[in-house]
Amino acid sequence: MVVPSKPVLIVGAGFSGTVHARILAEAGFHVDVIDVRPHIGGNAYDYVDANGIRVHAYGPHLFHTKNRAVADWLRGFGDFVAYTHKVRARLPSGAMAPLPINLDTVNLVFGTHYETAEQVAAHLARVALPIANPANAAEYLYANIGRDLTDLFFRPYTKKMWQFDLEDMATSVVKRIPLRSDRTDTYFADDEIQMMPRDGYTAVFQRLFDHPGITVTLNTAFDTAMLADYRFCFNAMPIDAFFDYAEGELPYRSIRFHTRTATDAQAQGWSVTNFTDSGPQTRETRWDCLPHHIVNETGRRTVTAEEPCDYRDNNRERYYPVKTADNRFQEIYVKYQSLAEKLSTEISFIGRCGTYQYLDMDQVINQSLASARRWLATQS
Ligand code: UDP
């Protein structure tokens, strides 16, 4: 008699868990996916609200990548439409400045009338501070765009976002935002592929899970006793929680969402407005300015503002791992990583909370495709 092989357990129905589930199921494995939340999709989950507007429950998710293989793979699970994301920053004067900083931003802030990228680059070179080896986000920005632009666009925003000063944050966090001297006014111009699922992210997750080898169970927390029933576990839960915080807590920033209804049907030319003031909110999203986000026309528009906070003050909802200039939280993570390596159980930690990384969707998908395929190669 052939003994059927044990299934694989996947903890977390966000991108990392879902991609692993799909790849393993397509290779013939039975996969059980559990998630503690009442929905699939992790932080990419979206839904249509009472205004008929598609809302991303955990803040705007904009898919952008240089990785064609990742985009092509994802396109296999839904219709995607081209969408080029634009952001404006609201200045104290009320003016809306293009972000990332570009030629028009510089003219708006300094009252200059530059016409060419060379003029703007020369201006930035003049105001930049001579810092040879920037050791933190403040030094990196000062060395590239000087004090005025740094303190206007980055200082208050970073403080309210992270509860740390720019001096305490890793350069990688602000390097997510390019610094430009031409007129490019799109947020992810460096990424050739930018797209949005036509029917929302949740529909993409439904397609990804639509495979006879996959069973999804929601509202279910992981318990180590479950491992006995499985040949392997890919686990996207917070790695510190798995080890009962033995090495201390890994901090995360969370977001409180404040939603209002607007009745002006007139769409603006951008979807996200960042706030440069030092109030509690970082930005707001007008969902109707994203493609196919008016699902039922009611004349009402949903607008969501974001107020960052410590995850312990928001039902332990973990959104952003924190990367300080001294790397102290990554050092705690490394301790958990070595505990994970010593586990006798067949288990691998995946995704944003399993590996304590600030990851974009394309990076999570790319890592998960590679991890699932590597694991398959070890199975005979
Ligand atoms: N940032 C800022 N001002 C802005 C936009 C971004 O200071 O108007 C800094 C801030 O520290 C933020 C980081 O750059 O956390 C990365 O911004 P991004 O827009 O990539 O954040 P995400 O969309 O991932 O929340």
Layout of strands and helices, then pairs:
Elements: E1 8-11, H1 15-26, E2 31-34, E3 46-48, E4 54-56, E5 63-65, H2 68-75, E6 80-82, E7 87-90, E8 96-99, H3 103-110, H4 117-127, H5 137-162, H6 171-174, E9 193-197, H7 201-209, E10 214-217, E11 232-235, H8 239-242, E12 252-262, E13 272-275, E14 283-286, E15 301-310, E16 320-321, H9 328-342, E17 347-349, H10 351-355, H11 361-378
Parallel strand pairs: 1-2, 1-11, 2-10, 7-13, 11-17
Antiparallel strand pairs: 3-4, 5-9, 6-9, 7-8, 12-15, 12-16, 13-14, 14-15
Helix pairs in contact: 1-11, 4-5
The chain binds uridine-5'-diphosphate (UDP).
Structure overview:
The protein is of the alpha/beta class. Among the domains are: 8-47 and 201-249 and 319-378, 3-Layer(aba) Sandwich (Rossmann fold); 99-175, protoporphyrinogen ix oxidase, domain 3 (Orthogonal Bundle). It has 11 helices and 17 strands. It has helices at residues 15-26, 68-75, 103-110, 117-127, 137-162, 171-174, 201-209, 239-242, 328-342, 351-355, 361-378, and strands at 8-11, 31-34, 46-48, 54-56, 63-65, 80-82, 87-90, 96-99, 193-197, 214-217, 232-235, 252-262, 272-275, 283-286, 301-310, 320-321, 347-349. The mean pLDDT is 96. The strands form 4 sheets. A 7-stranded mixed beta sheet has the order 8-7-13-14-15-12-16. Strands 10-2-1-11-17 form a 5-stranded parallel beta sheet. Strands 5-9-6 form a 3-stranded antiparallel beta sheet. Bound molecules: uridine-5'-diphosphate. Residues 89, 99, 153-154, 157-158, 161, 173-174, 176-177, 274 line the site of uridine-5'-diphosphate.
